[in-house]
Amino acid sequence: VDNCIKGINAPFVGTDFEKGSLIATEYLIKNGHRKIGHLAGPGRILSTFERIKGFRGAFHNAGLECPDSMTVNCEYNEKNTKSMFMKLKEKHPEMTAVYCAGLDMTKGVLAGAKELKMDIPRDMSIVDFGSTSFVSSLDQNGDEVGKLAAKTLLDLLDGKKTASRSLVVPKLIPGNSVRHINYPG
Fold first, then answer.
1. pLDDT band at 184 (very low <50, low <70, confident <90, very high)
2. CA-based radius of gyration for the chain
3. What whole-number distance in Å separates Cα of residue 95 and Cα of residue 34?
4. N or C: which end of the chain has fewer CB within 10 A?
5. Confidence class of residue 2 from pLDDT cuts 50, 70 and 90?
6. Could you tell me if 74 and 105 are in contact, meaning their C-beta atoms sit under 8 angstroms apart?
7. Among 74, 65, 101, 69, which residue's Cα sits nearest to residue 88?
8. Contact between residue 51 and residue 40 where contact means Cβ atoms under 8 Å apart
């Protein structure tokens, strides 16, 4: 459930990380952001690759360039993310928004922004995947994933055929962490 393990031949039930990232990034783009950083998660995890694909897909759909240097892999912890965010902001001072792969990453960005004396959302807009805090975030619909996983397991126990991959699309929950900007061009 929600973590595809290489080499295991079993049905997968989980979040549509690619579609969720597409939704989050499109939300930022619709709010005028063009210089968006992506703290994508560890490079060894399938969901990270799916998030990156959705992130880049939103730029492609909008006809915008998505520099590889705006995507950074980092661990799911506040300290590592804070450091990676600060390096990304130093490398790209024009960055106006960041999309985080999880709550601990968002905490790292908030800590880094505080240290840099940045105001959220005036100086930096944030969207994250799965948080329930004040930030704009993607609700992974955990109840729906759980119900679908239970149904899949019961179907398997009854000898019924099941889908090899069942995905639940996350829902964007706007918070107080994204500001609309007028972007020239």
1. low
2. 17
3. 8
4. C
5. low
6. yes
7. 69
8. yes
Q: 157 exposed, middle or buried (CB, 10 Å; 0-12, 13-18, 19+)?
A: exposed
Centre a 10 Å sphere on the Cβ of residue 72 and count the other Cβ atoms it contains: 18
> Angle formed by the axes of helices 103-115 and 78-91, to 10°?
50
- 10 Å Cβ neighbour count for 129? 25
Strand-pair partners of 168: 15
Per the structure block, which two tokens stand in for 181?
Answer: 């900007």
Q: Report which residue type is found at 178.
A: V
Bridge partners (DSSP) listed for residue 128: 100, 137
CA separation, residue 147 to residues 144, 162, 167 (Å): 5, 14, 12
Strands (E), the chain: 12-15, 36-39, 71-72, 97-100, 125-129, 136-139, 165-168, 171-173
Average pLDDT over residues 142-149: 82
Burial class (CB in 10 A: 0-12, 13-18, 19+), 164: exposed
Q: Residue 86 half-sphere exposure, CB side, CA atoms within 13 Å?
A: 16
